[in-house]
Amino acid sequence: MVAGKQGELMVHTPQDFINNDPIKQLQTKYKEFENGFKGWLAKQSLPVEAAIVTITSAAQGAAIGGIMGTLTTDVAASAPPPAASLNPQAMASFQQAQALAGGPFIQARNFAVMTGVNAGISCVMKRIRGKEDVQTSMVAAFGSGVMFSLVSGLGGPNPAANVVTSGVFFALVQGGLFKVGEKFSKPPAEDVLYSETRSMLSRLGLESYEKNFKKGLLTDRTLPLLTDSALRDVRIPPGPRLVILDDIQRKKGTGGGRRA
Q1: Cα-Cα-Cα-Cα dihedral sign, residues 72, 77, 79, 83
Q2: Is the pLDDT higher at 10 or at 185?
Q3: What is the pLDDT of residue 238?
Q4: Phi and psi based region of residue 4 (left: phi greater than 0; alpha: psi -120 to 50; beta: remaining)
Q5: Segment (H or E) for 189
Q6: What DSSP element (H or E) covers 158?
Q7: Distance of alpha carbon 59 from alpha carbon 116, whole angstroms
Q8: pLDDT tens digit sequence for 47-89
Q9: pLDDT over 60 (residue 45)
Q10: What's the rounded Cα separation, in Å, for the pair 1 and 18?
Q11: CA distances from 187 to 12, 190, 193, 209 (A)
């Protein structure tokens, strides 16, 4: 809150500071672009959506693989070429070393295939089944494991057994990770008590003060009862206090208008 040119008081809301923060502006623009792109993609036919998702995911995987390839020793380049007399098992081991420790181009290719196929199959499964669950995740992982085995040469001398083994391994790992993530992503039971509070703070750009509300047990039921002293007790600074109380008063006025 500052004095204006003619003695008037001007209140600066958190949104004013957000508008002057270039990082926040970039984050907002990126979020708008991402939501717009997802909305447009959801309106496309299944083949178009699957193709775009596969290509974009493959490009991301190629970038990650290229970076990883530059950070690892290129075994394929440093190791001597295998002798022609090597048995099939030794040759398979050499191919595995090439697949797992190749240079940037090899790793970019492997990761592009793995991530692209995974995302493409997952996209098709979600569109057909209408949900994303552990079965969708495991089927997509199996397909990516099969393709990764084919392009990288990973595994033993039996190609048929290699692709199945790799697919099953990928499916089990991703399925396990999906279940672990699902377990930890569930919000705590107490968060239900702060859903309206969280929504209000997010709208006002004051998300960082959610912990203050929880520390003071200021749940959704207390929102209409909030006072300046209550917010001060949970150590919310004066500026955010004014914005929060103003928002609550505006809601009360709107509600009163509707009842009348």
Answers
A1: positive
A2: 185
A3: 92
A4: beta
A5: none
A6: none
A7: 8
A8: 999 999 999 999 999 999 888 878 765 444 555 555 555 555 5
A9: yes
A10: 16
A11: 33, 8, 11, 18
Q: Which two tokens stand for residue 101?
A: 């420790």
* Assigned token pair, 53: 């998702």
Q: Beta-carbon neighbour count of residue 207 at 10 Å?
A: 12
Total residues belonging to the chain: 260
φ, ψ for residue 119 (rounded to 5)? -65, -40
CB atoms within 10 A of CB 133: 12
Alpha-helical (H) ranges within the chain are 14-19, 22-42, 46-71, 75-78, 88-100, 104-129, 134-152, 159-185, 195-204, 210-215, 228-233, 238-259
Name 111's bridge partners. none
* pTM score of the predicted model: 0.55
Residue 135 identity (one-letter amino acid) = Q
Q: Are 156 and 90 in contact (CB under 8 A)?
A: no
Q: Using one digit for the tens of pLDDT, what is the confidence trace for 96-129?
A: 555 555 678 888 888 999 999 999 999 999 888 8
pLDDT at 260: 36
Q: What are phi and psi of 73, to 5 degrees?
A: -75, 135
**Interatomic CA distance for residues 202 and 196, integer angstroms:** 10
Burial class (CB in 10 A: 0-12, 13-18, 19+), 11: exposed
